[in-house]
């Protein structure tokens, strides 16, 4: 039985007093038994939280009680186990970090496309379909015909646009460009950036891949694979059912059954993606941590100290989208 409700949310909205919102929001989440990460910045709010249904509904109600967040939308899914270890409310310069000033997603985002209209758009051969996520996310699933920019961080996306806008690139300012990401936030900022660079025909998937997988059945789907998520579920499929990937606890990249069968995989220590990249000190720490995990497993307890290391390629957990 799924006991924990997961809510992914974001909203671009002017929050000049975002610093003052931090502690009251953290205290309220803690009191409701809610865990996860929320990011606050002058440009809005972003994050994913999980907890008992009553607790999540209470937090969402509190957020929407702020008139500026009254229209906050969220996406729901369920988990049998709590997918987060603690609650964090962080202050940021951006709620999704592109690193380019004066990109105003609130007023400059491209045209929203509903999930049930998305297939028709991306089936058009004249439309350039761009996956705005990072390479490790794209590796386990994407839309048919989608271009992978092969970024390791969202901050690399503007440089990819610059290269692809030059002679010989795939982008030109008269082209139709359809963009998508996990939950919609990176798409809004990406399309706002393209519009700031003179692109006129820019579209993005409203609600992101998560809303598409929730809305569109597998029989009609143009999605191929699973969708990476930034919590202990690791991946989800149609209907937002948990997938079959796991985290490498050394690099935080998703592992398939084939990855785990590799001779380079050692549980908690290394995987085919990161084998040979760790220092001896890191390996000693990983082995000690894995020893504690196995002891807790034999006691049928959860070792909450096991958190994936921040990899060289992975974005901070709350900056999904």
From TrEMBL:
Residues 123-221 form the Rhodanese domain. The keyword Transferase applies. GO terms for molecular function: oxidoreductase activity, acting on paired donors, with incorporation or reduction of molecular oxygen; transferase activity. Its EC number is 1.14.-.-. Gene3D superfamilies: 3.30.70.100, Rhodanese-like domain. CDD domains: RHOD_YceA. InterPro entries: Rhodanese-like_dom, Rhodanese-like_dom_sf, TrhO, TRHO_N. Keywords: Oxidoreductase, Transferase, tRNA processing. Residues 297-321 are annotated as: Disordered. The keyword Iron does not apply. Residues 311-321 have a biased composition (Low complexity). GO terms for biological process: tRNA modification. SMART domains: RHOD. It is an enzyme of class 1 (oxidoreductase). It catalyses: uridine(34) in tRNA + AH2 + O2 = 5-hydroxyuridine(34) in tRNA + A + H2O. Catalyzes oxygen-dependent 5-hydroxyuridine (ho5U) modification at position 34 in tRNAs. HAMAP family: TrhO. Belongs to the TrhO family. This is tRNA uridine(34) hydroxylase. It comes from Parapusillimonas granuli. The gene is trhO.
């Amino acid at each position: 039985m799924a006991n924990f409700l997961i809510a992914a949310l974001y909203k671009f909205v002017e929050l000049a007093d975002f610093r003052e919102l931090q502690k009251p929001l953290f205290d309220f989440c803690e009191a409701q038994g809610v865990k996860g990460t929320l990011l606050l910045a002058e440009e809005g709010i972003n994050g994913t939280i999980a907890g008992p249904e009553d607790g999540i509904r209470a937090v969402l109600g509190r957020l929407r009680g702020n008139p500026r967040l009254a229209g906050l939308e969220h996406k729901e899914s369920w988990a049998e186990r709590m997918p987060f270890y603690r609650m964090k409310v962080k202050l940021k310069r951006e709620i999704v970090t592109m690193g380019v000033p004066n990109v105003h997603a609130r007023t400059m985002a491209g045209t929203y496309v509903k999930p049930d209209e998305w297939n028709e758009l991306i089936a058009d051969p004249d439309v350039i379909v761009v996956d705005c996520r990072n390479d490790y996310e794209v590796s386990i699933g994407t839309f048919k015909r989608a271009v992978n920019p092969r970024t390791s961080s969202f901050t690399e996306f503007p440089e990819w646009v610059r290269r692809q806008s030059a002679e010989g690139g795939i982008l030109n300012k008269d082209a139709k460009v359809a963009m998508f990401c996990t939950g919609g936030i990176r798409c809004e900022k990406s399309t706002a950036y393209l519009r700031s660079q003179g692109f006129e025909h820019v579209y993005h998937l409203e609600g992101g891949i998560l809303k598409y997988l929730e809305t569109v059945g597998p029989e009609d789907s143009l999605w191929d694979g699973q969708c990476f998520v930034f919590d202990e579920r690791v991946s989800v499929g149609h209907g937002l059912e948990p997938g079959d990937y796991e985290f490498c606890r050394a690099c935080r990249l998703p592992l398939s059954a084939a990855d785990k069968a590799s001779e380079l995989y050692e549980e908690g220590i290394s995987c085919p993606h990161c084998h040979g990249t760790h220092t001896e000190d890191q390996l000693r720490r990983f082995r000690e941590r894995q020893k504690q995990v196995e002891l807790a497993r034999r006691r049928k307890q959860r070792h909450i100290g096991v958190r994936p290391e921040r990899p060289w390629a992975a974005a901070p957990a709350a900056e999904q989208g």
